[in-house]
């Protein structure tokens, strides 16, 4: 929860999280957002997912966490939640029209299911952090070796470089398999392993980046 709540206070500026299916990434990230937003008066935040149906999942999580009026105003037609007493706004976007994300300064953003988002969503979103020096959380189950994979590997290299140079990294990377979620029955994972092709099981449940016969991470 602390990553987003330290927005605007220096590095790390980005977090990349690759995890297995049903790990709880969307619920966890939504909890971090719910914790962070109230700490910053007069600020704008976003949660972005590939399609409208997926961003509705984050809307539901946030609706369950945050109280109703008068503390939080929830405008579902515009997919915006506001905290009128302190001037915070949380926007829920789908990524079908990436350039629509350009414009106002954003203090914090979650990109959910990144591996299914267009890279232009990431590129356009980054322009909104130029003034705020805010924080972006990129979370997904791997899907081949696309731009999300490149971002995770860049963050991994930055962490190693920062450790060598004795400084705080500008980007950080985490990974976790589905089995790290204690609420997922081990029997369900074993059944998926039995039924799915090995490459797909390793991608969906072990959070490995699969491509050209190679994998990362173990």
Order of helices and strands: HEHEHEEEEHEHEHHEE
* Beta-strand content bin: 15-25%
How do the strands of the widest beta sheet line up side by side?
Answer: 3-4-5-2-6-7-1-8
Briefly note the structural class of the backbone. Answer: alpha/beta
Distance between the termini: 26 Å
Helix content: 25-40%
Q: Quick one: overall form?
A: globular
Low-confidence stretches: 213-218
Major sheet size, sense and barrel closure: 8 strands, mixed
Radius of gyration: 18 Å
What is the β-strand count? 10
Describe this structure in words.
The protein has seven helices and ten strands. With 218 residues, the chain is of the alpha/beta class. It has an eight-stranded mixed sheet, sandwiched between helices. The protein is globular, with a radius of gyration of 18 Å.
């Amino acid at each position: 929860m602390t990553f987003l709540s330290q927005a605007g206070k220096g590095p790390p500026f980005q977090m990349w999280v690759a995890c297995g299916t049903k790990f709880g990434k969307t619920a966890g990230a939504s909890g971090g957002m719910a914790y962070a937003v109230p700490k910053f008066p007069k600020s704008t935040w976003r949660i972005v997912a590939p399609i409208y149906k997926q961003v509705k999942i984050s809307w539901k999580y946030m609706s369950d966490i945050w109280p109703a009026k008068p503390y939080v105003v929830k405008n579902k037609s515009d997919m915006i939640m506001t905290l009128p007493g302190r001037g915070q706004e949380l926007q829920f976007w789908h990524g079908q029209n990436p350039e629509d994300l350009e414009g106002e300064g954003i203090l914090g953003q979650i990109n959910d299911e990144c591996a299914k988002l267009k890279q232009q969503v990431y590129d356009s979103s980054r322009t909104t952090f130029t003034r705020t020096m805010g924080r972006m959380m990129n979370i997904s189950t791997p899907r081949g070796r696309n731009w999300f994979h490149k971002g995770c590997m860049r963050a991994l290299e930055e962490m190693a470089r920062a450790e060598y140079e004795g400084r705080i990294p500008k980007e950080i990377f985490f990974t976790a398999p589905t089995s790290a979620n204690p609420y997922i029955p081990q029997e369900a994972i074993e059944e998926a392993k039995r039924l799915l092709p090995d490459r797909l099981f390793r991608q969906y449940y072990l959070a490995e980046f699969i491509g050209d016969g190679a994998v990362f991470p173990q």
